[in-house]
Amino acid sequence: MITRLPPGDTAWDAKAYQQFSRLRQRPVNELLDRIDLEHPTHIYDLGCGTGIATQLLAKRWPRARLMGVDSSEHMLAEARALPIKARWKHCDLLTWQPEVPADLLFAAAVLHFIDDHQQLLPRLLRQLNPGGCLAAHMPDWWDALWYQLMLDTLDDAGPGGVPLGTPELRQTMAHRTLLSLEGYYRLLAPITRSLDIWETEQLQVVDGKSPIYDWVKVSALRPVLLGLKAEEQARFIYHYLMRVHKHYPPENDGRTLFPFKRIFIVATV
Question: Where are the domains of the chain?
Answer without folding.
Answer: 1-140+179-204+261-269, 141-177+208-253
